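Chapter review. Work through the record for Glutathione S-transferase D11 before attempting the end-of-chapter questions.
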Amino acid sequence: MAVDLYYVLASPPCRAVLMGAKLIGIDLNLKLVDISRGEQMSPEFLKINPQHTVPVLDDNGFRLNESRVMLTYLSDKYGKDDSLYPKDLQKRARIDQLLYFDLEKIATPKRDYFKQHVLGDLPVDEEKFQQITKNFPFLEQILDGAEFVAGDSLSVADVTLVADIANYDVVGIDLKKYPNINRWYTKCQQVIPDYEEINGKGAAQFKRFWDFLISQKK
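Structure tokens for Glutathione S-transferase D11:
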């Protein structure tokens, strides 16, 4: 049976799982959730995920609702090798650390600004917007002298980070200020299969939603 993924393309976590699946070589049964119509709050979806969030992975009744866990799970279960998520404990620990780094240091500042100043009632604040990159120097340092975030080969940590960085890019953050990040970002676009179809189009969808919400505040 196919593995189901409930998703929204504008969501970086959803795109991370989609890109990871491409790299692993597993065909997902995609189930688009129309959040504009509140489908994530429907009784049917709440039975699948009471937290009413996407993505949700359903592997023949085994369900996960955290994208970084989905990436490691799919890599372990369906990967042809362990290149994306090595079995070596020290390499794996390094990648796990970067997955947490993405969640706390990269994804959260953007998400908080979006919820408060774009989706929420607080006004657009350019000074606070620029502060969402406050942790970029850490990522810039991680990538100093390294092709990918965990070393010389692409890993699930790169996949989840590049999904988030793409959203920073489209909302106006100048990545050229961070040469290591910009170099790595370009490299990921070159090596991840169907990158533009997944991450490019998804980030563009997020940008349209961001712009629409800001226009309503004027």
